[in-house]
Design goal:
- The structure is a single chain.
- By secondary structure, the protein is of the alpha+beta class.
- The chain has one domain: 2-Layer Sandwich (Alpha-Beta Plaits), CATH 3.30.70.100.
- It has 3 helices and 4 strands; from the N terminus they run βαββααβ.
- The chain has a 4-stranded antiparallel sheet.
- The longest helix has 18 residues.
- The mean pLDDT is 96.
Length: 98
């Protein structure tokens, strides 16, 4: 299992719009990506401009298909200007689960 954790900070005043863009990706994943096992989106309770995604893929090829999808491209087109850089990104091999 391959995972991606991304910590994304919205620019001031852009958090709701960034959340909508992230939810569009989540909707696409749910409808079109059976090899994306999980796609979690969280919004910080301490700073509502900070979002975390946690994504689980059956393998690296599924991760690459997700990252190369039209939905992800659309996210960066719409959401990219809303993001305060840099995005903190961790790609990992999952080795334990409950």
């Amino acid at each position: 299992m391959i995972t991606i954790t991304a910590v994304i900070r919205a620019k001031p005043g852009c958090a709701d719009a960034l959340q909508a863009a992230l939810l569009d990706v989540a909707d696409h994943v749910r409808a079109n990506e059976p090899e994306t096992v999980d796609f979690f989106l969280s919004r910080s309770v301490e700073d509502d401009h900070v979002f975390t995604t946690y994504e689980r893929f059956v393998d690296a090829a599924a991760k690459d298909r997700h990252n190369g999808s039209a939905a992800v491209a659309r996210f960066f087109e719409v959401g990219g200007p809303l993001i305060e850089q840099p995005v903190i990104l961790h790609t990992c091999a999952e080795y334990w689960t409950k």
